[in-house]
Design brief:
The chain is α+β, with helices and mostly antiparallel strands and 214 residues long. Helix content is 23%, strand content 25%. It is built from 4 helices and 11 strands; from the N terminus they run E-E-H-H-E-E-E-E-H-E-H-E-E-E-E. Its main location: plastid.
Length: 214
């Protein structure tokens, strides 16, 4: 007997009083049950009756089990599909400030207010794709006062909005592409011994997740 077919239901065999030995009429491959043959004094009548009988579908308990399996599969697949959609590159929109942006996930909460203490996760990359910093790797989001000059200008503009850039909403994820003048400009950052983590005049890419008010 197939263990898969009875994973969420129980099949109880019934004894049939007949001149023939007891048969297991459950077809595990096709998931169908055959109706029991009724007694008849005529063997020919038994054959005709058996030929005319139609197999019945799965029992209600097995149908519920099958439906549960489909629902479980859907629940597993949905996050994967959402993750795949989020990972798909989106088209950047260039604003009048020179900042380019693209919303991967539109937020659902309130927008930030200038001077407000907020939390945000981010991944910072050079234009060649090299990651130079990530709050995810540290396991802690960045906390700062937005619009107060505590971060580079491109960050304040990219989160608060303005100059053709819409404000981010809490829970949103946005990609920002900063020209040098909205980043670290001619001085670069992390420079030591003639080498810089962020070279001068670098175009920077940030994947920003605006968590909300700190």
């Amino acid at each position: 007997m197939s263990s898969t077919a009875f994973s969420l239901g129980t099949y109880i065999t019934r004894n049939i009083r007949s001149n023939r030995p007891l048969l297991n009429n459950y077809d595990a491959t096709s998931l169908r049950f055959k109706s029991q043959l009724q007694k008849s004094s005529s063997p020919e009548h038994q054959l005709v009756q058996a030929a005319n009988e139609k197999p019945t579908l799965c029992t209600r308990r097995e149908a519920i089990g099958f439906g549960f399996s489909i629902a479980l599969l859907d629940a597993v697949c949905q996050p994967q599909l959402a993750g795949a959609a989020e990972a798909t590159p989106c088209e950047l929109t260039l604003s009048s400030s020179g900042l380019a942006f693209c919303d991967k996930v539109v937020g659902y909460g309130p927008q930030a207010v200038k001077g407000q203490l907020i939390k945000a996760h981010y991944v910072g990359k050079l234009e060649n794709g090299k990651v130079f910093d990530s709050s995810y790797n540290r396991g802690k989001p960045l906390t700062f006062r937005v619009g107060a000059g505590e971060v580079i200008k491109g960050w304040d503009l990219g989160i608060l909005g303005g100059e053709g850039v819409p404000p981010m909403l809490a829970g949103g994820k946005r990609t920002l592409k900063l020209p040098p003048e909205l980043g670290y400009g001619m001085r670069g950052a992390g420079c030591k011994g003639g080498s810089c983590i962020i070279p001068p005049d670098s175009v920077l890419l940030f994947d920003v997740e605006f968590i909300g008010k700190a």
